[in-house]
Each structure stands twice: as structure tokens, then as C-alpha cells.
Amino acid sequence: MIHSLFLINHSGDIFLEKHWKSVISRSVCDYFFEAKEKAAEPENVAPVLQTPHHYLITIYRGKLFFLSVVQTEAPPLFVIEFLHRVADIFQDYFGECSESVIKDNVVTVYELLEEMLDNGFPLATESNVLKEMIRPPTILRSVVNTLTGTWSNVGDTLPTGQLSNIPWRRAGVKYTNNEAYFDVIEEIDAIVDKSGTTVCAEIQGVIEACVRLTGMPDLTLSFMNPRLLDDVSFHPCVRFKRWESERALSFIPPDGNFTLMNYHVSSQNLVALPVYVKQSISFFDSGPCGRLDITVGPKQTMGKTVEALMVTIHMPKAVLSANLTATQGSYTYDLATKVLVWDIGKLNPQKLPNLKGSLSLQAGAPKPEDNPSLNIDLKIQQMAISGLKVSRLEMFGEKYKPFKGVKYLTKAGKFQVRT
Amino acid sequence: MSASSAFNEEKGGSSSVGEPEYGHDPASGGIFSSDYKRHDDLKEMLDSNKDSLKLEAMKRIVAMIARGKNASDLFPAVVKNVACKNIEVKKLVYVYLVRYAEEQQDLALLSISTFQRGLKDPNQLIRASALRVLSSIRVTIIVPIMMLAIKEAASDMSPYVRKTAAHAIPKLYSLDPEQKDQLIEVIEKLLADKTTLVAGSVVMAFEEVCPERIDLIHKNYRKLCNLLIDVEEWGQVVIINMLTRYARTQFLNPNMNESLLEEGSDKTFYGSDEDEDEEEEEKEKKAEAPMAKRKPYVMDPDHRLLLRNTKPLLQSRNAAVVMAVAQLYFHLAPKVEVGVIAKALVRLLRSHSEVQYVVLQNVATMSIKRRGMFEPYLKSFYIRSTDPTQIKVLKLEVLTNLANETNISTILREFQTYIKSMDKDFVAATIQAIGRCATNIGEVRDTCLNGLVQLLSNRDELVVAESVVVIKKLLQMQPEKHSDIIKHMAKLTDNIQVPMARASILWLIGEYCEHVPKIAPDVLRKMAKSFTNEEDIVKLQIINLAAKLYLTNSKQTKLLTQYVLNLAKYDQNYDIRDRARFIRQLIVPTEKSGALSKYAKKLFLALKPAPVLESPFKDRDHFQLGSLSHLLNAKAGGYQELPDWPEAAPDPSVRNVEVFALLERVTTLTSVPEWTKCSSREKRKEKRVEKPFYSDSEGESGPTESADSESDSASGSEMGSGLEESGSGSESEGSEEGSESEEEEEEDEKDKKKIKKDLKKPVKESESEQSSEEEERKHQRKSDQQKSDSESESDEESDSESSQSESDDSDSEADVKKKKKAAESKPPPKPVKKDTKKEKKEMSLLDLDDFEPAASPQVTPVNSFLSNSLVTDLEGLSLSDAVLSPANISPCSALKSYELLHRIRGEGLSVEYCFSRQPFSPDGNMVAVQMQFTNNATSEAKNLHMEDVKLQSGMRVKEFPEIELLPAGETATAVMGIDFCDSTQAANFQLCTHTRKFFVSIQPPVGELMRPVFLTENEFKKEQGQLMGMNEITEKLTLDAKCRNEHTIVQRVTTAANLSRVPCGSDKECRFAGRTVTSGSLVLATVATKEGGAAQLTVNCEKMVIGTMLVKDVLLALTQ
Lengths: 419, 1120
Prior knowledge:
The complex is a heterodimer of chains A (419) and B (1120).
Chain A: E1 2-8, E2 14-19, H1 30-38, E3 48-50, E4 55-61, E5 64-70, H2 76-94, H3 99-104, H4 106-116, E6 117-118, E7 121-122, H5 127-133, H6 139-148, E8 179-192, E9 198-212, E10 218-223, E11 229-234, H7 240-246, E12 248-251, E13 256-265, E14 275-283, E15 289-298, E16 307-314, E17 319-326, E18 330-334, E19 339-345, E20 354-361, E21 374-381, E22 390-396, E23 403-417
Parallel strand pairs in A: 8-23
Antiparallel strand pairs in A: 1-2, 1-5, 3-4, 4-5, 6-7, 8-9, 9-13, 10-12, 10-22, 11-13, 14-15, 15-20, 16-19, 16-21, 17-20, 18-19, 21-23
Chain B: H1 2-16, H2 26-32, H3 40-47, H4 51-66, H5 75-79, H6 87-100, H7 105-118, H8 124-136, H9 143-154, H10 159-175, H11 180-191, H12 196-209, H13 221-227, H14 233-250, H15 256-263, H16 279-294, H17 301-310, H18 319-332, H19 335-338, H20 340-348, H21 353-369, H22 371-374, H23 389-402, H24 408-419, H25 424-440, H26 445-455, H27 461-475, H28 483-492, H29 499-511, H30 519-530, H31 536-552, H32 554-569, H33 574-587, H34 600-604, H35 628-632, H36 662-670, H37 677-698, H38 702-709, H39 720-738, H40 742-760, H41 763-787, H42 791-804, H43 813-824, H44 831-855, H45 860-884, E1 897-901, E2 909-919, E3 927-935, E4 941-950, E5 956-958, E6 963-966, E7 971-979, E8 987-992, E9 997-1002, E10 1010-1012, H46 1017-1026, E11 1032-1038, H47 1046-1056, E12 1060-1062, E13 1069-1076, E14 1082-1089, E15 1094-1101, H48 1104-1119
Antiparallel strand pairs in B: 1-2, 2-3, 3-7, 4-6, 4-8, 5-7, 8-9, 10-13, 11-15, 12-13, 13-14, 14-15
Helix pairs in contact in B: 3-4, 4-6, 7-8, 8-9, 8-10, 9-10, 9-11, 10-11, 10-12, 11-12, 12-14, 13-17, 14-18, 18-20, 21-23, 23-25, 24-25, 25-26, 25-27, 26-27, 27-29, 28-29, 29-31, 30-31, 30-32, 31-32, 31-33, 32-33, 36-39, 36-42, 37-38, 37-39, 37-40, 37-41, 39-44, 40-41, 42-45, 43-46, 44-45, 45-48, ...
């Protein structure tokens, strides 16, 4: 299926290539570069390109292009999903997925790629399995390695996960502190129109888990109000039948960090937006200027404070500079990308933050006819906006008592205010 | 290949720039970075004795390969290390070998012997990796060696090695396609493999090597369906895509009836004569042809199996899996069921933008065919200013497809905001979209047109141009009404510079010049002036306009036309010169011009049909959705066409697995309907072979055995039906283990033949012979088991899977036979006996579990745990259901009512409901729910109705008629119907009054999911005989002191469940019967009383979940 993979950085250098079948010349990437030239933004390059003999399927992540070459029919989502999995694995191994990190660990990367695909077909994509075969670099080990001169980042024992029916968990896990943490993170996607009415709003949630438990624990996580969940998707470890019958998550967890489930809160429940925005942005015909006035206030926060509040505005190209005053926080205006960022921080309900001032336009340019929309970022700790609550976590199969913790967090997802 | 040249360039490039290839490695970088003695240091290091130096060298070499630099000259030095003891060095050497072996074939041969040795290694992982590398080095000479290795590995004990063998098949095939036939044999063998580990890989090999050999799938179809959920995610995608194609060739179109209605054509049933295998069936069909047409469509149970088993995968985290299931449903499911995929697809829109891009393409195609499916999710396709342009355009496409009379106003309002966007390409696309909405929905055409005309004064030229083009298309539909718009556009010619727009305006004026008689000549005058500076398409339209005006208004425009034509005559572009010449001949009559000029008017002023604005995604669904070809809208290499539905279904019996199959147990337990004569006969033979062995192990007595094996002569044995049930159940369990080795299978074949002969001999003789043979086999099996490894574990899992998936019941050959037998037999076995049998059955299940870990020492911890957890899983299923069923059913009155809405929550309005147990007349599959509304408030409540019904998939609701007025203090009743699909899932909805809405839900106790049926005692026994084994649940209890007489028992049971009493000769037993409302599965309950209040409750129901829950409820009712 997947013939070759090229990693390309932002400026268009191919800095890594891997072939699973016979070698394909890197000149095949020229078609991609051509498309990249045409597109204004890297996001706008079509993910699937057709060349006379090959198909190029590309993803853009962390300012890198993962370009795979496919020669025959293959489900494009299959390839895209796999490439993202590769990026996830890099992230998991090295803490980030960037050009410098990949270059520093080129051998490990190459070994990983070798294990992940066989003849272009995915072989081992579970991070738990891979980590048994190829150990991730740690500071401690690199120190030991340089001192003793023994280099080994390949496991000499053979992975059991590959062979068992629970490929996501390795055998023989041992911890002195047994702990299981679950983060319930909800994101609000909303579009608010000019007048302040909500065009659409929905809540997307994810439960991120960090489980460090000895042996083979079998966990059951149940909710107080599972009926809230409208649409769900699970990590393969979750037993679907149990979910269907009991609305509880029953699973043998992978070791370490993983995403347990994604969910969508049913749209019948109206979403309470935590903040409101009062804005007026106007440009005048007479004289090259415009005015901007934004106030953010709390709406429904259930007594919690809104933190990390931030407003981002992609200004029209004609806006040259901004001369504003913020009652709270600070603002920056990037002249090159025309992005105005107002970092507010904590929202104080007594004294509402306000940003006011004038915008100067390019001389001679016609006034922009459309107003830019505002993108809102925010965080609310210790609250899941949908009201979802974990009722309990039970463990079977092991004797010790683990330490358990659940954290809630609400964030703004794609929260947009039209003006 | 061009690769080598590329590398030479690289080489030159890299040596001139003195950059060290291993730049990341500071420890060695300083010492070894010399330019001129390229690689000498590396060679030295590789030759040294120290593993650490070798490793270091290999790492640097691999880093070079990763950067695409040529390291081929190191080949001899590297290949020497292929036998290195250090596992990490070895791995890196493998990486190198796979990369360069193709270029250095001769030297690569040196390494082959190492791999051959590796293939014999006792460690499965070493065997696997040796095979992996051996098959990856693309050297043609070793094809025979590879072939041999693959064949051997395909029958390896370790499933992991077999998986590797499956991976190696396409490698060998691409190296030497001549081997196809042999490879197909291997594929066939691996397809029969029962482990989830192998399934995905072998199907992938199948797809690459022999996708046309769909017949190989028949025997494995059901197994693949059942294993599917446990296969790793990538394998799932491949299997689902393959099964989609398979199903298209094997099953009938579930939407056939509709399409027949739509087309109304006489599709003959004679077209499928070619199918020679089924001549008999064919003849029957011909005879019935007129009948068949009217016959309602019945879905093949295998088709249903596929749909049911893929559905849970919509919840996968892997977008590719979700997409694969979605396309399967789109291509295979009946129209009413396709809807379930919409939610999952919409969920994917939250994912990475690349995923969004692909999903939206597919949604766009789907939304044309099935608009209703995505309508509820309209808002999910709204566009954000931060979306990449390509996503915006696709969302727009979907929105346009979803537009209809009811939602068009909201959509147009959305579009209005989009038009203001900064992204001009997107704005242009929006205008196009508005145009399409306007053509599709007549009511809004004028609004859209007006909106577009306003856009003509937009400052952005691109916007104006696009609007003009779209307006032109719209005006063509009804030009008479809009001459003012045409005038307005005529004025625009002074300002608009975009050629396409100018051309459109000119064409419009020419076409409708009679509507604007005064302006048209003036426009031509202006155009004649600027003719030489125009673009080609504009020039062509000017000529066109001139010609049309000349024909309609030659007085005013004759000279102008002459002038334009003269200009065109000397144009640089030959198209324009040609056109001018051609038109002059046509419109200006001379002596030479022939008859054509008479028809000039007809030629130019013919009525043009209005263009149809169509989605570019129309008819794209002839490509399999989710495929690369669909995305590109062009056939990609290796794309397998999605075949059309067959007109008549091929013989379904090809999927029956005759020998030792997983599914056998399921089929014997629940009797799959399409079991054909021949196979059921075979099965019987099977049983006869197997039985002695198992009956031995279970300690059953000889005489019953012999009686049973003579079942065809129907000796009317004591417990005929029951025995057969339990016997066959355990037999198939055992048989799975048995099928491990092929030899054994062969032996079985022999056995079978032998038995056939033996049957003619006196029974006793044959039996003894068998049992001795079986003894032998038993030994063999034991030793086999010990050898075999973890495989059995996954077997077991799939096994439990399959046993849970019960298939719909209908009469079958086997069934009928059983019935006959049961009818002939004496009264059914007494409860005590049943009990022991049941225990035995459980024993055998547990036996398996205990047996397993010992058989596979390698993964013992995992294994034993797994099998345990499986058991708990299974138990959990039944336990869990109890949680759902409301435990508070107490038999106080005949109809217990439940509270739907408390008067405090309902602000004075209280609602109670009860299950009236009356048949719900509008729909027999629904449970009637009687609701009683009481208004306790002081004001009246109006317009009581329900809204926003939210149900589990498959469930349906018939709403109660709206209650218009409920005065204060009054009470009203209404009846609604709910089809719970035989589950105790709640039906949620909103109860609305004129002022308020309340969220409420109705959850049925399991006893209300059935309706009573009348059975005679004999019928009851017969049916009960068929619902044994897994379908029977027995529970002992002590009756409450108050309810030890028959009357109270009957009363309590019928209160707890909607069952009717079955007459019974004995006063120690009470029997009840009913059918579930939706699927009509039989539910039988028996309460047998003994002295001192001891009693035993038996429930037989094909739906095990319902059975378990019912036992709980009835138990509660009897003991309280």
C-alpha cells in the first residue's frame, strides 16, 4: 500500500526518506512542491495529489509534511490515519514531533518506521508494542550509554504484545506507585453571529488517561450521567458490548498515556457558552482608519473562573497597524501575518476587560468590506461544561489498591464570533 | 530505475559539501569526519571485533540511508555482519540489506543461508523476522527459496509467523507474478486460519494477488464477519472493503423493491441463466418468476450478519475504519438503515484537516443520494473563517446538496455571511452554490437572483464576474421576467474586465435582444470600438452578438456587424477568423450562399435549454466510497470495480462450512434458516462420527448413543431432541481444537467415509470400532494441544463472539427434522435431568478455559488472564442487564403504572404511564403505552404533544395525538406506541405543553416486551425442546409462603410478564408462553413446584438477554 515516505520541512527540504518496497526517486516530490507553490498556506495543499505514475498523500503536522507515495488503489483515509499515527508515535517517543528532534534521533526514527510497516502494510502501530522493541531515548540512558559505551536502544527481549490478544498492553508491567488518572476535557465549538446569537454550538469531549498500574488490571469506569453522551468513539481496548448494555467503560488499559474515548454531547442539551463578547469593528470610508472596541464578559461559568482567555483576530490585509489600549492583558499585532492577539488571562467579572482603539489602513487601499471574525480561546478548570461526571472507577484482576484521580477541564475549541 | 542516477548526483553533491553524514552524533563526529577517505573508517569499524564499534558504524550508515545518501559501496562490509550476535547490529544490518540487496544481487546471496537458518529457529520471533527480511530483499534468484519458506511458514504453529507469511505473499507476487497459482494455494490455506492476527494480513494478500477469486471467501465469510471486531484496525479496513465487494456479488439488493417501483420496468428474471450450478433452483425460479416479483424481499441472514457485525466499528477511533463501515452501509444496507453512519461521519469532521477533506468528499457524494441522512447535522457543515479553503469549498458543496424548501432560508443566511469572506476563491464558490440552490429550489429563485444582482455592485471584480456567470445561467430559465436585470448588466460592460463575465453578458444580451431592443445595438457599438483589445472568448461573443442583432434588427446594426466581421477577418486567432467567415456566409445572403442562410434565424435564435447546475459529485458513487478512485474521480491502478447487485442471489449454501467450523455451534443452537438439505445431511454424519467420543468423555451411556445415531430411522428415543442439542454443542467446541492440524482433518475425512460404510453394518459393531478409533484420536489430540501455542486462545474468543451473535430464526430443514422427532418423543426430560445437562455444558466450557493456558506455555500470564476475563465478560453481560431492568416491579395490580412526570417537576402537570398490554393497532410491532395526564395546576394546559424523540437505533415511536386542551384539575389519557426492538433501552423524548418542555423517558420492564400467544401442551413441549442449551435458563427458588398455590403463581407471573398460560396436565407445573413484540421470538416460562415451597423456574428464549432478564423479574415476583 504505502510505498515510500518522505519527510519535508517547512522550507521544502526532504530530510528523511524511507522506502518499504523498491526505491522511488525523490524527484516524485516535485509534483508536491508545485502544488505547495500554488497554495498560499501550507494547510491549503490538497492532501491527495495525482502524478502520472504515483499518488501522493500528504499530511501537515508540526510544520512538517509527511508525504507518502502510493502506487495503486488504497483507501486515502487509511494512509492519512497511518501518517498521523506515525506523527503520534514520534510525539510519544521524543516529546515533540519536529525536524530537529527527528534529525537527532534519525536511527530510532528509521527503526520505528521499519517496524511500523511491512511491505507498506501496517504491522505494529501500538506505542506499547513498539516501545518494547525499540526503547525511547531517555536522558538517563543516554548518560549511561556515553559513560559505559554500550549503546542499545533495541530491546533484546521480544515483545509479547504483538502476540497476545491485547496488543495494546505489554506484559510484566511493574510500578511501585500504582496510579490511574483520567482527564475529562471538553471543547466548545461555537459560532456566534454579529448580534450575539448562537448560530451553532456543540461540545466535543475527550477522556485522556494516564494509567500506570502493575500487572493486568481490568478497569471499569462509569458515569453519573452517561445519557449525556450522544456519539462516542473508543480506544480499541474498550469492550463495546459492555458499553452498549451498561453504558460503562470496561477495559484493560494500555500502559502509559492514551486517549480512552472521544465523545459528542447530544445536541438537544443547549450549550451554555461561558463568555459573551461585545464587539464593534468598523472601517471608515473617509480617511484611512478604523475603530475597534471589544469587551468580553462572563455568561454562564457556574462559579468557576475563566482562565487563559485570548482573542485572536485575522485582520484584513489592508490593516497596517493597530493603536489600541487594553484594560487588562496585552495585545500584539503581527504585521506580516496581520494577526491581532489579545491575551487577557483571567477573566475578572467585576471589571470586564476591554480593548479599544483605532486601526490604521494602508493609504489608498479601499476600506475592507468585511469585518474579521474573532476566535476565542479560554480554559475553565475543574468543570466539564456538559455536566458529565465520572461516578467511579473499579479495578478487577489485581489485588493492590491503585491511586485514582479524575480532572475536568473545559476549553474553547473552534469558538468563533462573527462581526 | 532513475533512482541510481539520483544517488550519483547525491554522492557528488554530498562530497563537495564537506558535511558529515552522521551529523547528529557529536561523540564520533569530531574524530571520523574526513572527506576524502570516504567510508574507510566505517569499513574499519565494521571489521572490528567490538560490537559497540560495529553498532556505531551501522548507525551512521542507517542515518545516511535515511537522508537518501548512497551507501551502496559498503555492501560487502555490511553483509558480513548479518550473522552478528548483537541483536541491534543485526537489526540495522537487516535494514541495510533490504535497502540495497536489489542493487547488489550477487553479494546479497551471501546472506541467504543465515536467513534459512533463522527460519528453523525455535523462537517464533526470529523465524518471523528471518522470513520478513528474506521476503523483502528483492532478488529474483531466490524466488524458489522464498516460495518454500512462505509455504512452510504458512503452516507454522505460531500465528505471528503465519501473519508474516501472509505479508510475504504480495512481496513475492510483485517480484515474480508467475508464482500466482502457488501463492493462491497458500492464501487459501491462510484464509482458513482462525486467528485474528492472521485475518487482516491474509485478506490484504488476497486483495493484492487474486481479488478476482471471490469464491475463496465463501467458506470463510462467516468466520471473517465474526472475527472482525477483534482484528487490528488496519486489517479491519481491508476486510470490510473486501466484504463489501463480496456482498455485492452474493446478495440481493435490499432496496430492490424500491428501485423496481421507481423504474417500473419489466426486469426479466431470465437474464441469469448462465448460472449453471443452480439449474434446478433456476428452473424453480422461472416457474415462479411472476410470483417472485411480488414476493417481498427477505434479507439473506449472512447479509444481515455482515451489517450487524460491522456496526459497532462505527465507534472506532480510527477514521479509516469508520469510513470503511460507512461505505459498506452506503453500498449494502437497506435505505432505512443507512442513517446510522451519518453521526459517525460527522464526528470525523472534528479530526485533522486531511481527514476532514476525505470525509467531506464522501459525504458530498452520499448527500446527493441520501439527503435526509445528513439533514439533522446541517450545522456541523457551517464554515469557519479559519478552515482551509479546500475544506470550505467542500462544506459548501455539502450544504448545497442538503438545501431544500424547509432549510433554504437558514442556508442562504449562512451564505450571506460567507460572501463577505476575505477568501475570494471561497466567495466565488459560494456564489456558484447560491446559483445551484436557486435552480434546484424554485421558491427562492427570485430572492437569490436579487441577491446576486446586488453583488454586481461589489467592489471585488472576481465576485462580480462570478455573479454575472451565475445570473446568466439563472436568467436562461425565465428571461421574460427579468429584462431589467439584463439592462442592468448591459451597463456593467463598461466596468467589468473579467473576460468570462464580459462574454456572459454579451451572450445574454444577444440571446434576449428582443427584450432589450434599445440597448443591444448600443452595446454592440461599444464593443465594436474595443474589439481589438478584447480577449478571445469576448471577441467570439461579440461576433455572436453582432450576428444575432443583424438577424433581428438589421436596420440599425448592419453596418456595425459589417465592421465587426471585418475586424474579425484579420484577427490573429484563427478561430475568430473562421467564425467570422462562417457567420458572414450564413447571415449575409449572396448568390453563392446556399440553402443554409435561409435557416440562419433558426440556427442562431433557437431556444436554448436552460443549463442544469449539477453537483460535481453527482454519480460519483459508482466508485466504491472511501476509495482513492472515488476521491480522484478517476480509476486508480488496481482499483476493483464495485459489481452491480446480482439479479438473483447465487446459492447461499456455498458459505455453509461443513467440517469443524466455528459457526457450527451457532447454527446448531439457533438453526440458521438457509441450511440446505445436503449440508444438513452431512452434518448429521458428522455428529455420528463425533458423538461416541464426546459421549465417552461426558460419561453418557451407550444405549442412548446408539439410538441417537440411528436417528433417521427415528426410534423415538427418550430424550432425543435434548440430547442432540447438548451433544452437538460440545462437539463443535471440541472440534475447533481438533481442526488445528490438517492431518487430523484428513483423518476425519477417512473416518467419515468409513462410518458411511459402517452404517450398513449392525450398529454395535460400528460403534465399538469408532470408539477405539476415537481413543486413538484423543491421545493424538492431547499431544497436539500441548504443542500448539497461543492460537487456541483467540479461537476461544472468536468462539464466544459467535455464540453471542444469534441469527434470526426461521424454519429450516434441520429444524423441521428436530420438530418431528420431538413430536414423536415422549414427554420432555424432567427438570432434574436438564439440570445435570446444563452443568455438563458449563463444565465443558470451563474445561476449555482450564485447558488453554497449559497448552500455550509461552504466553501463560496473558492467556490465563484473558480467558478468565472472557468468562467474566460473558457473565458480566447477563449481570449487567439486571441493572437495567427496573427492580421495583411488584405485583400489586394487573397494570402497574409508572411515573413519567412528577407534578412538581411538571409545574402542576403530572403524567403517569402504564403498559396497557393491548395490541397497538397502527403497528403490531409496537408496545402500547397508555399515558394519563393530570393537570393539578390552576391554569389550563394546552397543546400537549411530544417532540424530539431520541431513540436507540432501530427503535420507533408512534406519537400520541396532540391533546389540545387540558383544563385545570382534569385528566386525559392517550396511547402511544413504542417499538423497543426487544431491548430495555429507554425511549427519550420531550413532552411539550404550550409553555414548557420536559425531558422524559420511558423504559420498559422486560416483561412488557412480549405479548401472549396461545400454545397447546404439545406445541409447548416441542418448542421448548428446540430452545435448550444456551437458550435455557434455570433458576431454583423458594416460594414465598403466600404464593404456594397455583393461582397466585399464575397471577404473579402474568403480572411480571405479559405471558399467557399454557394448559398443563400436571398441577405441579405452570407453563407460560409469549412472543417478543418486535422480532416475535418465542418466550417460554415454566414454574415447577415441589414440596416445602421449593420450586424451579425455567425460561426458554432464543434471545438470551431477554431470557436472563425475565428470569430475574419473575424470580423477584415470586419470592417477594
